[in-house]
Amino acid sequence: MGMVGHGMWDLSFPPGPPDRVADMFSAAVVADAVRRFDADLAQTVETCRDWRREYRPIFHGLTSLSVTAPAISLGIAEEGLTSARTMLRFAAGRTVTALRSVDVQAEADSAELATGRVDGTAAPIPRLEVPYRGAVLAEEGLRRQLGEWRERGIVEPGFAAAVERVIDNPEWLALPGFRMTVVGATAQLGPLRPLLTWGADVLAVDRPGRARWDRLYAWARDGSGTLRFPVTDSGPGADLTRHFPALARWIAASADVRPALGLYANIPGAAGVRVSAAADVLAEAVLRSHPDAALAYLGASTDCYAVPPSVTEEARDRLARRGIRGSAQDLLHRAAPVPLYRPNYERTVATADGEDWGLFDNLPTLLGPDYALAQRLPRWRAVLARAAGRAVSYTVTPPAWPADIHETPWRTTTLRGVDHYGIEVFDPSTIRPLLAAKLVADLYSSEPPEKNPEALFTTGAAHGGLWRQPFHPGSLIAPSTLLGWMDAVRDFGERSVRRYFT
């Protein structure tokens, strides 16, 4: 069998100025997505003079528009994905075509991906276990902690209920009847490591690279499952934007049972849009070849979501119950030269069925419109697949401690201070198995599609308390950083005193 080499395929933006083409592309996709439903918003996008700085209110408007009615949510998703497919270019050798016209299953080149395999050496863990603050939670202890997180507003009730179903059905952990593909296998919060410890048979897709694949091999050997992966003539791994026709065929050929496709690959900047678009092509190809296939995604907490009345009502209730401390916060909000203690939900969006939804706004300005569109493309695919009756798992993730805290000291300081406002920052080793358990529960769920398509993102979210606390996240950055710095100084002093007297 011939193996695919690097550079055979390429997914690229349409022609344009190299320093502006990504911004031009993201603006055009958003304008096309909303034009049929809000011509004024589309015109605002098209006449925007500084898209990189002014994209955030546009995405807020896009989110508000999507939640107003199911037909609008699905229509925006369809129009947006069609626009992206039309403009992106797919190069195979010397042939360049619009991505929309590519049939990855029928691609002419005969080269295919080989398959590597690593089997685990440990016994499978027979129950859901979650490390948390020095202890290992399982069964009733885990139920109590889920109840506490639910009461504090750290996770939504649907998330806690999903994990509890897995506690009740530990035989689900190894995913019997499913073949899980994890695209972006080394993603920090992805499900690969938990699934391997539970004995699952997993297809892992990630970019080539010796250090990356040494890490994946170690996870597989230390687990109890089976890791299968694509191999090119350069070694293990495949680049999603260059090998996705072959990847689609490889996944389809490996799915001897019901396939579940988890799409977790994420790259900063303009490249992230191309990765997201390639992942969508892969998703559509798998759905076409396997009508019973399931899709799985993780959503970032740094995005914009429409949230239901139960969330906004609790946030406003907490705002009203602050007491004396609230008076000081309100004074700072009015007097400070920078945004401080801004209420989380100052206005609501009326939906077609008479509900008032809020708009959670946590899109960082610095990440730019490429990031926002890369997050939005999988959301569009998710609502379309769910409306068509497919099994879809989409879970909004909480803030998590970075893998290397030395690279981002200011962010670590800010995260350290947010617990003063009822927001919990999770260790990846804690939230990772919880998110994987939510995925497992979603795969075995028989719930019908949500009445409002946007509820797919809210019902089972694990946002860490960001949604239900009273303040806009951006207005807490300065005070959280200050409080985090003060906590660090206090802890340093306490450690110094203990060392002196011991």
Structure description:
The protein is α/β, with parallel strands linked by helices and 502 residues long. It has 2 domains: 9-110, no CATH class; 114-308 and 359-491, NAD(P)-binding Rossmann-like Domain (Rossmann fold, 3-Layer(aba) Sandwich), CATH 3.40.50.720. Helices cover 46% and strands 15% of the residues. It contains 16 helices and 16 strands. It has helices at residues 21-34, 39-46, 51-67, 70-87, 139-152, 157-168, 192-197, 210-222, 240-254, 270-289, 309-320, 324-335, 368-387, 409-417, 428-443, 477-501, and strands at residues 9-12, 89-92, 95-98, 114-119, 129-132, 135-138, 178-183, 201-205, 226-232, 235-236, 258-263, 294-299, 304-307, 348-350, 356-361, 392-396. Strands 4, 7, 8, 9, 10, 11, 12 and 16 form an 8-stranded mixed β-sheet that branches. A 3-stranded antiparallel β-sheet has the order 1-2-3. It has a 3-stranded antiparallel β-sheet with strand order 13-15-14. A hairpin with a 2-residue loop joins strand 2 and strand 3. The longest helix is centred in the last third of the chain and has 25 residues, at 477-501. The protein is globular and about 70 Å long.
